[in-house]
Design goal:
single chain, about 270 residues, alpha/beta, seven-stranded mixed β-sheet, 8 helices, globular
């Protein structure tokens, strides 16, 4: 049954994206703020499809911890869901993303026009300088800047070193740095066909105030995000039915070890 629901969601997602993206093409020549509003409309539509077809809902915690003005949000990245929720929750963010995404039909067109900060990950130090330069006017407007510290989606339980972009923004912009933990990868893994029913939790943590030493910030940021993410994953595992008690993209050998030998039934389908 879950495979049928996921297939139905994928079909509905593609249809909704093509329909909305085509109807909304005039927004690409309108003011940036209107393009962002249309992007939120599309993202909300996808979240409705997830909830009604797959049974995958979400909960947002710690909104009261977000500063009223500009800030940097350093968010754990496990799933495509993370990109959907950011404009819905933060209203008018500027997301740091890899430049290649701007060439993705529909999504890339709107993301670029809505004011995302695109970086060339092959450009080294010059990419950091360009990112900071692009972020300065965003900070001056009081908009939140969202960056994924690992630079890519990372499966639950896996570890990828945090990149230097967060520290560069923190030092250059002198803004509060808000860590954000999420357990989205438990339900919707990277490149995974299966989306599992349940409730994704996104939690904003206490901000790190500006002015901390640059070398100290990445260590504290990683420790806080990873600790909170592990707690959210345990919460998801505890709430899940026994037959769905593993992340959507975890490997069969890993699950077999957790289950004392053979993989559970859903890894053999």
């Amino acid at each position: 049954m879950i495979w049928v629901r996921c297939l139905a969601f994928n079909v509905a997602f593609i249809a909704w994206t093509v329909l909305a993206g085509t109807i909304g093409l005039p927004f690409l020549i309108m003011p940036r703020a209107l393009t962002m509003q249309f992007g939120r409309f599309w993202a909300r539509g996808v979240l409705v499809l997830l909830r009604t077809i797959v049974g995958l809902d979400h909960e947002i915690r710690g909104l009261d911890r977000l500063p009223s003005g500009g800030c940097i949000v350093a968010m754990k990245h496990q799933s495509a869901w993370d990109v959907l929720i950011v404009p819905v929750v933060l209203r008018d963010p500027a997301c740091v993303l890899k430049r290649e995404l701007l060439f993705v039909p529909f999504y890339g067109w709107y993301a670029g026009r809505a004011g995302s900060i695109a970086i060339d990950r092959t450009a080294g130090a010059s990419a950091l300088r360009r990112m900071v330069a692009a972020a300065r006017p965003v900070a001056a407007q009081g908009r939140p800047i969202v960056i994924f510290p690992e630079g890519t989606r990372v499966a639950p339980g896996a570890h990828v070193p945090y990149l230097s972009g967060v520290a560069a923004l923190y030092q250059a912009l002198a803004l509060p740095l808000v860590p954000a933990a999420v357990n989205s990868g438990y339900f919707w893994g990277r490149r995974a066909f299966v989306k599992r029913p349940g409730r994704i939790i996104l939690e904003f943590l206490e901000p790190i105030p500006p002015g901390r030493p640059r070398r100290q910030v990445p260590v504290e940021l990683e420790q806080r995000i990873e600790t909170a993410t592990a707690a959210l994953l345990r919460e998801a595992e505890a709430a899940a039915p026994a037959r769905l008690s593993a992340p959507a993209n975890i490997s069969a050998p890993t699950v077999a070890r957790r289950h004392g030998g053979a993989p559970p039934w859903w890894m053999n389908e």
